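Q: A small favour: would you put together sequence and structure tokens for a protein?
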Amino acid sequence: MAHALSTLKLPPLLQRILRKLRILPTLPPSPIQPGESVWLYNNIGYRDAATNRWVVQFICAYFYRGTGKDLAKVVANITTMIGLAPGADPTTEQTIANRVQPFLDTILEGKTVQVAFNQAGDGGNENQIFTLGPGGSHGVSVNDVFVAGDWREGNVVRSRAIMPGTGESSGFQSCSLINFETRFADQEGWAVVSDIDDTIKVTEVRDRLSLLRHTFVLPPETVPGMPEAYSRLNSLLSAPPWFYLSASPYNLFPLLSAFVASHYPRGQLLLREMSWQELESFIVTITMGTQQYKENELEVLIKNFPKKKWVFIGDSTQKDPEAYAAVYRRHPTNVRRIWVRLVKGVDVQKEKELNSKERLEKAFKGVPREIWSTFEDPEVLTNEVKVMVAADAGRV
């Protein structure tokens, strides 16, 4: 039966379902082809503690181009009719369709892509070609690759995926994110982890209708005062590497990467893989199981940068306090400071519990009081960072 089915020209989504049910065999690795898209994340290179060589983690997502386009337009029309975007004009409907489409495009398993790393030969270092992948069951590949070169803290290089076709005429620029940056960070100095939703971007995750509006309908909105605060932090901490750790699914990468690049210090986005290619799992992904997910990602960062002085910034809406505190208890010499933004005005009843002294003291049990604090006004965050930096300088 499997052999008979494999000889048929089945729609990509049906093929994927049959492979998931193990009716069709798993695809062998294969290079990306015309009609297929790839997203490449900006990333941060680090020195491997064992070899002292530079390592870069490449994260890629692979899709069949435009397979969800028509359905995305239907979804946009439905969201208007049910009141998610009341009175939406054609421009708003197109915005909704564009944001929904990455959830509906059929993902690609087993794909590989070549990248031209350091395409311009920056810093006197040679261009290098790497093959990334294959993509896993969620259409995402993660590859840790040793890169040659005499790199220094803060060096930034630009790279590009090598796609089928010839440059601009190949048509990939409109559907793929094939250009990316790598910033190199040594083991010493500061590093910052920041949540995104309701820490630096207004999302209102505690109100599901507002969550959907902010994600799929409204222009991305910064939390007031946070862009200025992060700019000052970036200066006070001598331009540290930034990691934006979010429970948002990777399908939102185009939206969130553009948002961060427009308003905040450039850094690496760490986004969650969705369990299955269905839009309704979005709310589950962003609101459930976030603590363990974030703890796992933070453990990897500390493993890769064991000598960094880590600063964690999050908010009170989900499990940032619990996740950050748990990692501190395991790595008290690595994690120097934790800040939690108290979110108010979304779900007043729930916020009484989430922002309560009892909740926070329970979350941070065993964590010294001088390590963690809360804030509402970003200016408080800036002032406390100044105190932290001065105290650290006096410790040396």
Q: What stands out?
A: The first strand starts at residue 30 and ends at 31. The chain has 13 helices and 15 strands.
